[in-house]
From TrEMBL:
Pfam families with a match to the protein in the record: ABC_tran
A molecular function (GO) term: ATP binding
Coiled-coil blocks: none
Name of the protein: ABC transporter ATP-binding protein
Species whose genome carries this gene: Blastococcus jejuensis
Domain ABC transporter: 18-249
Keywords: ATP-binding, Nucleotide-binding, Transport
Amino acid sequence: MQVPAQQDYRSRAIAVEARGVSVEYDLSREKSTLIALEDFNLEVREGEFLAIVGPSGCGKSTFLNVVAGLVEPAAGEIKVYGKPVTGPEPDRAVVFQDYALMPWRTVEKNVRFGLEMQGRVDSTTKDKVAHYIKMVGLSGFENSYPRELSGGMRQRVGLARALVTEPRLLLMDEPFAAVDAMTREIMQEELTKIVATTGQPIIFITHGVDEAVTLADRIAVVTNRPGRIKEIIEVDLPRPRSRASRQLPEFQALRERVWQLLSSEHPERSEAEMAVSAAAGHHATDAGSGGGI
Ligand SMILES: Nc1ncnc2c1ncn2[C@@H]1O[C@H](COP(=O)(O)OP(=O)(O)OP(=O)(O)O)[C@@H](O)[C@H]1O
Ligand SMILES: [Mg+2]
């Protein structure tokens, strides 16, 4: 299926708007405040796939939590579909970095929970749940408990639980980090297809530079903490994109650009070290070990 390049998202309505967002955490033990985000500005449009990359601890998950309504900013404004965020709403689904599954519930019941929480259980629920369990490749594990699954499988349950609610906005925090390379490819393709059909915007945090270039319409690179937008890179590669797209010179140029921006956020890594690592092709691909940044 030829999916149109999603250039048209640019003329669409704004789904998420962050203006001057700052987040501070109270560190009561140290009697101090940690500034996680400062003057963070970002717009995400309907149908857009926005990837966020940045050093560990720079505030990426914090930003996602602000959009989800789980963390309140100390300053600035955050709107989803034009409405100021005051708390979690059913129009936003989050796939958390740490799975957040219920250990006492089976896979099927964990996925079903997405709908239960919203009071949307009806005669279609069973089929919907089965559909999304199949989509993430967990058919046959419906009655397993999270402790009986691998990390990657748990992450896929989290994804199914978010997708089953068919949200207007999908917030994903390193959803494929614990998934093996082959499954990641499949899930990336599935996710691309889902987005192409539903048109729902996605904010997708990843440490995988190749993953970001493969999936995103734009990549927001975040600075070291306190996190701010360092640069936003447009990814105007044709879709559908696949593993083969990674051989394109345009792909490689984008990958290099992202890496340059990221490495400048790691001052402790000397330039010489970066050069050696680049020459050895350490960042040439992030398939496999979940590598990246
Ligand atoms: N609930 C909290 N209380 C206090 N500090 C927090 C809390 N949550 C996050 N932080 C701090 O805020 C900063 C940003 O954390 P965050 O989890 O947003 O980073 P991240 O960019 O998602 O990192 P990673 O890539 O490692 O997941 C970190 O220094 C972290 O220690
Ligand atoms: Mg995080």
